[in-house]
Design goal:
The complex is a heterodimer of chains A (about 180) and B (about 450). With about 180 residues, chain A is an alpha+beta fold. Chain A has helices at about 10-15, 25-35, 70-80, 125-130, 135-140; strands at about 20, 35-40, 50-55, 55, 60-65, 80-85, 100-110, 150-165, 170-175, 175-180. In chain A, strand 8 and strand 9 (about 170-175) form a beta hairpin. Chain A starts with 8 loop residues before the first helix and ends with a strand. In chain B, a hairpin with a 2-residue loop joins strand 6 and strand 7. Classes of the chains: A alpha+beta (about 180), B alpha+beta (about 450).
Chain lengths: ~180, ~450
C-alpha cells in the first residue's frame, strides 16, 4: 500500500473535533476567494511539483479534492506530507485587494474515506466558487471516475504574506494560531 | 499533466504574466514564491526580482509553474492551462535563472478536459485498486450505461413499423406484437452488451480517448464499473430471454421465425464478436441495415400475422438504412482508436470526403425509397409523412465534413442523426396507422 495518512487525522474526524485556526485576515480572504491555488508537493525524487487546484478553507484546514484520475499528487503527499499552497494569481482572486500569500503545512490524504461520496461535504464551498459544479455532479454518470475523489487536508504551519503582491520584498512571516478545538 | 518539450514549454511560458517558483527548503517544506519572468534566447527562464531570503542556493533543482484561468462569474472559470518546468537554478543578483531540463503541462484548448480525463483512466483505476476501493454508480445508471438504453429507439421503430403494417392490413394483435417488442429489446440490449465485451477484448474502446455519449462504447468495463465477466453473463442472459421468446413465437406463430431468429443472432452477435466481426471487415453497415430493418420489421409482421410481407420488408429498408447511418456517423469520432486496433470500419477505410458523400447517398436512397414506395403504390400515400425526417438528415450532413476531426463538436451532429432515424420511423408508423384509420 503506497497510501498513508497523517497520524491522528482519522481519530480527529471520528471524534468530530475541529481545530479552529487563525490566519492573517488577508490570507483567509484570499483562500475564501481564490478560484485556483498552486499546491506544491514533493515527489519521491525530491523534485517539487505544483498543481493548480481550487482551494477551500473551513477555518481549520486548507482543503482540496482530487479526482483519482489525477492521483499522482495524492501518492506524493502520502510519501511526503510537506506541502505549500500558493495564492499568487490576481486574476484567480477577483474583487480583492491584491496580496500574495504562501501557506506551508502538513498535508494528509483522507484515504480512509469513501472516494465516491466523502468529498460531497465540500460541495457548499466548491459551489460558492464554481457554481457549474452542480451541473457536472448531476451528470456524474457521464464521467464517473472524475467523481471518485479523495480529500487533501493541509494543516497550516507557516504563513508568508506579501502585501500588494510585491514579491520583490521580504514577506511577512507568521505562524497560525490555534484558537479552539471544538 | 502531460510531458512537453522544454523549448515548447519555454515559448508557452511567455504568455503568462508570472511564474511560481518552488524548491525544497532546509526544513523540508517547499519554498514557494511568485515572480515576474522573462525568457532568454538561450532558453533560460529568468524570474524576479526576489528578496535574498527567497532565493535558493545555486544549483538547486527548482520547479516553476505558470498557470492561467479566466473567471466566469456565475459559472466558475474556463481557459484552464498551465506549464511546469524544472531545472537547476542559479542566482544572478536579485534574479533567479532557471535552465529547464524537463517540462509538462496542459491546455484545455488543445486537449479538452474530457479527453484529458479519459487519458488518465488507467491511473485512476490503479489508484483505486491500491486504495482498496471500487468506482460505482447507482444501479439505475449502471444498467442505463451498460446496456445503452437510449439506443433502443433503433428497435422500437422497426418493431413498431412491422406492427403498423400489420394494423394497416387489419391484422394487428397487441399480445404477439408486445412479445416481439420484448424479444427485440432483449436482443438489442444483448448486442449492445456483447459489443462492449468484444470492443474491450479488441482494445478499441480502451484505446479511445475521445468517447462521447454516442460513441466509444458504454465504457463500464474500462471504468471498472462492471466486470467483463458480468457483462458477458448479462449478454448471455439477454440472448436467452430473446431466444426463449423467439422459440415461443416460432412454435406458436410460424416456424419460419426460427430462421429469422437464427439470422438475427448471427448478425447481432457477429457484429463485433468473433468469429465474424462484421464491423471489422467493413460490413457493419449492411448488417445493421438488415438487422434493424427487414429482420425486425418483417419478423414482427410474420409473428403478428403468421404471414410474410414484402411490403414490411420494403418500408423497413429506409429505417434500416438510417439505423446503419447512426452507426456510420458514430464511428467517425472512434476511427483513430478503431484503426489502431484493427477495427477497420468503413470510416476507417475511406477518406473523409467519401464518408460524408456516402452518408448523403445512403440518406438519399432511404428517403427515395419512401417516396418511390408511395408513388409506385407499394406503400400507402400517408407513408410520405416519413419524408419529414429528411430535415434532420440534412442537419446532420451539413456540418459533418467541417466537424469530422472534432469528436466533441460532432455530438450535436450525432444527436441530429439519431433524431433523423427516430422521426422518420415514427412518421412512417404514423402514416401507416393513419392509412389504417382512413
Amino acid at each position: 500500500m503506497i497510501l498513508s495518512q497523517r497520524p491522528g487525522v482519522a481519530a480527529r474526524r471520528e471524534a468530530w473535533t475541529v481545530e479552529h485556526i487563525e490566519l492573517p485576515s488577508e490570507v483567509a480572504a484570499l483562500l475564501d476567494a481564490a478560484l485556483v491555488a498552486e499546491l506544491t508537493v514533493i515527489a519521491a525524487d525530491g523534485r517539487p511539483i505544483s498543481y493548480p487546484l481550487i482551494p477551500f478553507w473551513d477555518g481549520g484546514r486548507v482543503l482540496f479534492t482530487s479526482a483519482v484520475l489525477f492521483s499522482r499528487k495524492l501518492e506524493h503527499i502520502a510519501a511526503n506530507p510537506k506541502v505549500s499552497v500558493s495564492l499568487s494569481d490576481p486574476l484567480a482572486m477577483p474583487g480583492l485587494p491584491f496580496h500574495r500569500a504562501v501557506i506551508e503545512g502538513d498535508a494528509a490524504v483522507l484515504v480512509h474515506e469513501d472516494p465516491h461520496t466523502s468529498w460531497e461535504r465540500l460541495l457548499p464551498l466548491w459551489r460558492a466558487k464554481e457554481p457549474a459544479i452542480d451541473m457536472f455532479v448531476k451528470r456524474r454518470f457521464g464521467i464517473p471516475l472524475f467523481f471518485e475523489r479523495h480529500t487533501i487536508e493541509v494543516e497550516p504551519k507557516r504563513i508568508l504574506l506579501w502585501r500588494d503582491g510585491d514579491t520583490s520584498r521580504a514577506p511577512e512571516v507568521s505562524v497560525p494560531r490555534v484558537l479552539a478545538v471544538s | 499533466m502531460g510531458a512537453l518539450a522544454v523549448a515548447d514549454a519555454v515559448v508557452r511560458a511567455r504568455s503568462y504574466p508570472h511564474g511560481v517558483i518552488s524548491y525544497v527548503g532546509p526544513d523540508g517544506y517547499p519554498v514557494t514564491v511568485a515572480a515576474p519572468h522573462a525568457e532568454t534566447a538561450e532558453g533560460e527562464v529568468v524570474l524576479g526580482p526576489l528578496p535574498p531570503g527567497m532565493l535558493p542556493p545555486n544549483g538547486v533543482e527548482v520547479g516553476v509553474i505558470f498557470s492561467h484561468i479566466r473567471p466566469q462569474p456565475g459559472i466558475g472559470y474556463d481557459e484552464r492551462r498551465y506549464v511546469n518546468v524544472w531545472g537547476p537554478a542559479r542566482r544572478s543578483s536579485n534574479l533567479l535563472r532557471v535552465t529547464p531540463t524537463r517540462a509538462s503541462g496542459w491546455d484545455e484548448a488543445e486537449t479538452p478536459f474530457f479527453e484529458y480525463a479519459e487519458r488518465n483512466v488507467g491511473r485512476g483505476r490503479d489508484y483505486l485498486d491500491k486504495a482498496g476501493a471500487k468506482p460505482h454508480l447507482s444501479a439505475f445508471w449502471t444498467v442505463f450505461l451498460a446496456t445503452r438504453l437510449p439506443f433502443l429507439t433503433a428497435t422500437i421503430v422497426p418493431v413498431g413499423l412491422g406492427g403498423a403494417v400489420a394494423a394497416h392490413d387489419g391484422r394487428f394483435a397487441w399480445g404477439w406484437w408486445l412479445l416481439c417488442l420484448l424479444a427485440g429489446v432483449a436482443a438489442h440490449l444483448a448486442i449492445n452488451v456483447i459489443n462492449d465485451v468484444a470492443d474491450a477484448d479488441s482494445g478499441s474502446d480502451g484505446a479511445n480517448v475521445t468517447p462521447t455519449p454516442f460513441s466509444g462504447g458504454s465504457r463500464v468495463i474500462q471504468y471498472g464499473l462492471v466486470s467483463r465477466r458480468t457483462m458477458a453473463a448479462t449478454a448471455t442472459g439477454l440472448y436467452a430471454v430473446a431466444g426463449a421468446i423467439g422459440i415461443l413465437l416460432a412454435v406458436t406463430r410460424s416456424l419460419s421465425l426460427l430462421w429469422v431468429g437464427a439470422l438475427a443472432l448471427v448478425l447481432g452477435y457477429g457484429y463485433t464478436a468473433r468469429p465474424f466481426r462484421f464491423v471489422h471487415r467493413g460490413l457493419g453497415e449492411p448488417v445493421v441495415a438488415l438487422g434493424f430493418g427487414p429482420i425486425m420489421a418483417a419478423g414482427t409482421y410474420l409473428a403478428v400475422t403468421r404471414e410474410f410481407s414484402w411490403e414490411a420488408v420494403y418500408i423497413s429498408l429506409p429505417v434500416g438504412l438510417l439505423t446503419a447511418m447512426i452507426l456510420y456517423v458514430n464511428q467517425i469520432p472512434d476511427r483513430i482508436a478503431d484503426a489502431a486496433t484493427g477495427k477497420r470500419t468503413l470510416v476507417v477505410r475511406w477518406p473523409a470526403d467519401r464518408v460524408v458523400r456516402g452518408y448523403a447517398i445512403v440518406c438519399a436512397v432511404a428517403f427515395g425509397l419512401v417516396l418511390a414506395g408511395s408513388v409506385l403504390g407499394i406503400t400507402p400515400s400517408a407513408s410520405l409523412l416519413g419524408l419529414g425526417g429528411a430535415w434532420w438528415a440534412v442537419q446532420t450532413h451539413r456540418p459533418l465534413r467541417a466537424r469530422f476531426d472534432a469528436p466533441y463538436a460532432l455530438i450535436p451532429v450525432m444527436q441530429s442523426n439519431v433524431v433523423a432515424h427516430l422521426v422518420t420511423g415514427l412518421l412512417l408508423i404514423a402514416g401507416y396507422l393513419l392509412a389504417a384509420a382512413l
